[in-house]
């Protein structure tokens, strides 16, 4: 019996050993499969799919209008506006859109000597004499607005920040922040509530009255005004109710000067910021139903609603990984809030800052996650994200008026320093050419479908992180032309060879179709790559600057084609590298 037990124990041991061995071999096989799959996916992501992406465009299927909500720009430093490179860039921006381009800038009422600095600016519009009597000086504000009006542009006029003489805590007032410093160091005396709200109201009244006198009633009626910036974070050192009071008095002063002027807010930092969307709801409720601090009556003027939305790039395995999902989520949430109130659902919406991340003046050397800004990643992100803003506005049935790219230029700074700007030292960066492409798309938006285009919900949920890139299209049709913008985007800033794309266009007239392809990639419309090939000169020569300026313009690829449509159909084949953008301009 004892011997039999030993045999049984031995057999049990052998069985367990065999089973364990089988399991171990199985796990090893699975592990190897996983490793091989990961290696395959990585190689596949780097090389791109060999199967063509299929895009279909139907010129007879209208989805909306190609309204240029993208033609809105802004920046912190107002004094750059009338400086050499600022004037040059404004001229270029003014030519982008079939409708006037709007500009939003901070610090229009900030006290100081008018000298520009990073995240700083001043106009000295308001001071007081020794007896506390207000004194107004509109010279610098006029210089800023004149630069717009002379070019057919319009201010999205920000009423802020607090003049030193009105601040409840004026000291320290002027900050000297630089990249790498604590961001909170910028929030000095200009962020505080006024010590006298009646003087604050009178300041706004005098400003608007002066503007009407200088530019005419009809011109000022075409502007939009808004109060402050991101009052739910450090830009405002008062309470939420104190901000509502600030807004009420500003709106009252504006309406006293020009009853037909349009005002709104609250320009909150997005839903990912502290209390962002909660603040937006409270602000709307205040304007609809609360007692106005300035008039004592119920309700406050509200003609435009604004909030901000930003992405969140990070470093991942030695490269930048973008996060468009965070930005789109904030936009969707803001749209839903506005649409949820009967009193606001049809009001125009301005996304007062709509960018891949938050700090325009934080360069890539202090913030390496911002290294995407000089090259084509910024371009492809912009194309892919703006197309989704059209889709979100359509799906949620809101009145999207503008989406401000908080991106301008930084005067007298190092070349390609990695700021979030449209140009460096007067040379256009690749991202500006996306807006040139958008400006060539007019008329109606038409149906464009791609089997490789991620849905908005997919991007919000998990980004563009899978093997396949996001190859999508935005299309337009006018009387004698059509435009098809195609991008090849991925959150990971990695360059690959081109992917084949087949585009079928339906609904063309039975005529010869002229096709021109515009391109942004490593070798087209890309001043940054040209600068690097020069050896990244810190002080380019005059000849090099001329070459860089040429490289910064929107360029074509290939020859102009003349094709005959067959039964109104036309097939177009292109190859587009990762982070590249093409605009196919068809005319007849």
UniProtKB/TrEMBL annotation:
- Print the keywords alphabetically: Glycosidase, Hydrolase
Please identify the protein, giving its name as recorded.
Beta-xylosidase
Which InterPro entries does the protein's record reference? GH, GH39_cat, Glyco_hydro_39, Glycosyl_Hydrolase_39
Keyword check for Protein transport: no
Q: Does the keyword Hydrolase apply?
A: yes
Protein family: Belongs to the glycosyl hydrolase 39 family.
What organism does this protein naturally occur in? Mucilaginibacter gynuensis
Question: What residues does the Glycosyl hydrolases family 39 N-terminal catalytic domain cover?
Answer: 55-551
């Amino acid at each position: 019996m004892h011997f039999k037990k030993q045999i049984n124990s031995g057999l049990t041991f052998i069985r367990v050993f065999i089973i364990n061995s089988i399991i171990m071999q199985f796990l090893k096989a699975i592990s190897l499969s996983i490793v091989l799959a990961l290696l395959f996916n990585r190689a596949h992501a780097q090389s791109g799919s060999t199967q063509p992406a299929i895009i279909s465009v139907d010129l007879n299927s209208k989805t909306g209008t190609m309204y240029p909500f993208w033609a809105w720009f802004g920046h912190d430093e107002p004094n750059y506006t009338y400086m050499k490179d600022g004037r040059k860039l404004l001229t270029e921006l003014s030519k982008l859109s079939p409708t006037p381009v709007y500009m939003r800038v901070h610090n229009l009422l900030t006290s100081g000597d008018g000298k520009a600095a990073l995240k700083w600016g001043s106009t000295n519009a308001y001071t007081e004499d020794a007896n506390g009597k207000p004194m107004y000086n509109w010279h610098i504000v006029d210089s800023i607005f004149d630069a717009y009006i002379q070019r057919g542009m319009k201010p999205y006029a920000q009423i802020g920040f607090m003049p030193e003489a009105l601040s409840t805590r004026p000291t320290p007032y002027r900050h000297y922040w630089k990249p790498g410093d604590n961001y909170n160091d910028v929030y000095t005396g200009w962020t505080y509530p006024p010590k006298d709200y009646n003087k604050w109201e009178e300041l706004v009244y005098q400003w608007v009255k002066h503007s009407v006198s200088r530019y005419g009633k009809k011109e000022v009626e075409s502007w939009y005004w808004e109060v402050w910036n991101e009052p739910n974070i450090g830009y405002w050192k008062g309470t939420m109710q104190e901000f509502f009071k600030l807004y009420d008095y500003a709106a009252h002063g504006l309406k006293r000067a020009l009853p037909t002027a349009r005002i709104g807010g609250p320009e909150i930092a997005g839903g990912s910021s502290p209390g962002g969307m909660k603040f937006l709801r409270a602000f709307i409720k205040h304007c609809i139903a609360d007692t106005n601090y300035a008039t004592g009556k119920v309700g406050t003027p509200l003609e435009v609603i604004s909030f901000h939305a930003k992405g969140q790039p990070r470093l991942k395995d030695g490269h930048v990984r973008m996060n468009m999902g965070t930005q789109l989520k904030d936009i969707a949430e803001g749209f839903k809030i506005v649409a949820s109130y009967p009193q606001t659902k049809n009001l125009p919406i301005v996304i007062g800052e709509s960018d891949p991340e938050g700090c325009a003046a934080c360069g890539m050397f202090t913030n390496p996650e911002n290294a995407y800004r000089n090259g084509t990643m910024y371009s492809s992100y912009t194309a892919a994200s703006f197309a989704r803003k059209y889709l979100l506005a359509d799906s949620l049935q809101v009145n999207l008026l503008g989406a401000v790219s908080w991106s301008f230029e930084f005067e007298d700074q190092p070349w390609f320093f990695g700021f979030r700007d449209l140009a460096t030292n007067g040379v256009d960066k690749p991202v500006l050419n996306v807006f040139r492409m958008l400006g060539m798309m007019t008329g109606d938006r038409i149906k464009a479908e791609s089997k490789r285009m991620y849905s908005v919900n997919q991007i919000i949920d998990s980004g563009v992180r899978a093997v396949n890139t996001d190859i999508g299209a935005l299309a337009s049709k006018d009387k004698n032309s059509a435009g098809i913008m195609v991008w090849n985007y991925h959150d990971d800033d990695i360059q690959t060879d081109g992917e084949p794309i087949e585009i079928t266009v339906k609904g063309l007239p039975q005529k010869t179709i002229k096709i021109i392809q515009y391109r942004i990639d490593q070798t087209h419309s890309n001043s940054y790559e040209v600068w690097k090939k020069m050896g990244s000169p810190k002080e380019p020569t005059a000849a090099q600057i001329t070459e860089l300026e040429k490289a910064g313009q929107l360029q074509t690829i290939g020859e102009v084609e003349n094709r005959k449509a067959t039964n109104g159909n036309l097939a177009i084949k292109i190859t587009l590298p990762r982070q590249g953008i093409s605009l196919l301009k068809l005319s007849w």
